Amino acid sequence: MSATTTTTSRRRGFRLFALDMNEIGLIAILLVLYFGFGATTNGFLSANNHLSLLRDAASIAIASWAVTLIIIAGEIDVSVGPMVAFTSVCLAFMLKADVNVALAILAALAIGGALGTFAGSLRAYFGVPSFVATLGLWSALRGMSFFTTNALPVTFPDNAFLDILADKIFGIPTSAIVMLVLFAVFSFISQKTAYGRSIFAVGGNANAAELCGINVARIRVLIFTTSGVMAALAGVLLTARLGSGNAGTASGLEFDVIAAVVIGGTALSGGRGSMLGTLLGVFVITLIGNGLVLRGINPFFQEVVRGVIIVAAVLANILVTRYRERRTFGA
Amino acid sequence: MQTARQQDPQTLVAAVRGATKHYPGVLALDDVDFEISRGEVRALLGKNGAGKSTLIRLLTGATVPDRGEVTIDGAALTGSGTQRTVEAARLGVRAVYQELSLIVGMSIAENLFLGRWPSSMGVLSHGEMEHQARETLARLGLTLDPRRRVATLSPAERQLVEIARVMIGEPKLVILDEPTSSLAAAEVELLFKAVRSLAGAGIAVIYVSHRMSEIRQIAEAATVMRDGRVAGTVEVAGADTAEIIRLMLGRSEQNDRLVGEARGGDTVLSVRDLAVPPKLAGVSFDLRRGEVLGFAGLLGSGRTELLRAIGGLDAVRAGTVLLDEKDITRGSYGERVRSGIGMTPESRKEDGIMPLLGVDENTVATDFSKVTVNGVISASRMAQAAGDIVRRIGIKTARIDTPVGTLSGGNQQKVVIGRWVYAGSRILLFDEPTRGVDVEAKSQIYAIIRELAAEGKSIIFVSSEIEELPKVCDRVLVLRDGRFVQEFVAPGIETDALMAACL
Question: Which residue stretches of chain B have pLDDT < 50?
């Protein structure tokens, strides 16, 4: 079978599980990394390390699902890290003031959603490039977090519900369960709802989508709202794990998130991408980070290795895409 | 008829001799001869696909003829690929196309010298650049300040800067491709002044246009192309419009018409005194149920602007749009879509298809709710709905979810039309629905349009290919200078009469 039929005209019924060439490549990379580290690194295969791998993956993945939608729509969100920190600080302040925990968490999610909506509205109604709108948020939210906390952790009384979030259910970290549930939800949204398919339509050709009667501006606002809520959720889980609100937390998370999404094969130009790809991308990043730490590689050099691997993975993805387009669209 | 124009070999600037050019499935040029002399302004006319563009591409070196030769200023072009265009440019061929290629954030002067900015020891010399720019502009009789940013210029002024740019170096032959199509009538005089300056400086000008009034003012002779050949070259002064139209159309085939007696029921859409400056100055018409209404007009006559205004995509200055006697003038595009209006854009690739999505999703994108059950898109309903459209309209696709970008142009266009059939729209606005599709797909699209009309849908059909309007339209309105100037009613709409009304 030619590349054309295997990669571009999959039956939709199986689409949630159908594998792209890029995804097969990522699985191969993951296997190499996993068994490579497993064979050479002490403690990598231990049960504890697997739990820690899942927790690390969850901290990136939950924000990545929404950012995948944003990048498919041809936009970008660089505000994730500060958004996580800011909502974490907000939550901690509310808990410190003895606000009911459910209410406080909902309020934190609402704050994230509102800030995301603000960035999305700047993009959709005023034409501010999403990079600039979210870069503004990136700076303002990080600054606001430090300003309100004086860079000190905000502690709050022990809380049973947050302890569950920080702990394990049936031996699996709660955050990892949240990650997997949301993976299913976002896969479903992206493939099976009008909202999800409209995102692909807007990213593939916004003019055509507009002429079809799709409300492009509304889609553009909604994806940033979603992203804000997801970042806030990541903030809630992080606050539970740390037991305090920290202004400096999740530093650089936005780059891990974007890297995971693009490694997963989502095109920065929009219109193409998948949640499964992002899931694999998250695991690639997590495995590399974890393995390098366990091997005791100099932490500064770890950053170098990570940078090289991210660019190499995306380059490979572009070459595959180019090859595929030549086969599909001709010349 | 072929009026032999004696060309003095001493003053000959460019000559094409015996040029033939095949493209897959098309004979674009068939043994064409063409000559032009110093200081001459020559109009070039012909329908879409008559071979004008290929002839221009031969002269600019963008295309190598299969047979025959191209001589510029006495030297035959010999290179191939980009080398040939460089060669032609060095010999003095310059072309200004309809799509402007200025960088709007830079000054006029910087644009004039784009990529070849005057510099000394690696440092740009702005003073020198402005000085040279001012001189160049003055040679065309222009008084624009070369320091102004292009973004601040009007469309006409931008067009003039494009023309000024070709003055850099030593141009011998300047080709202007429909230079007035984006200009308002008042701005045309500025352009004429510049063209006369070019001719006065001994430069030969090829002026592609179909506006007879302009051609009479600016050109001495007109070369008319048809079916890849030069149908004739006539002195403009001695030729009447009817003769030029006859050369353009040749013998017209009238036997493939799909329209008998003009039909149409009650008025569904009523437009009154619609004004969208600068292109539309008060347009009125009624669209009836089950009717195909054609809009004819030259490039730049405001056809697309009119459709966009009816569709609510552009704001209107004055006038009303009534749908079923309800005023929808201020309503958004989305509201109009929901009340049964559908529009297919002129540029299929840029505004029509979502290339990576399948035929099915491209079809149902106009109304996801019809295939959604409890908030979830039903794969089977979507396949069925899209499958109905595919069968009904005759879209050739390997599978229902094949990415639309991989289909042929004709099938892509059918998908773009089909999505409105799926949505159940009653009023369809088709902007150039047959552009860039092959002959077979064209006649299929005509048949689809007639079938939709027979079902009681009302269709506005915009086309720059005048001869296809009589084939499908019950009525044709001719747009010129921002107004409808004439109405033709089937049967018996004659292509040459339509053409004459447009020019």
Answer: 1-4
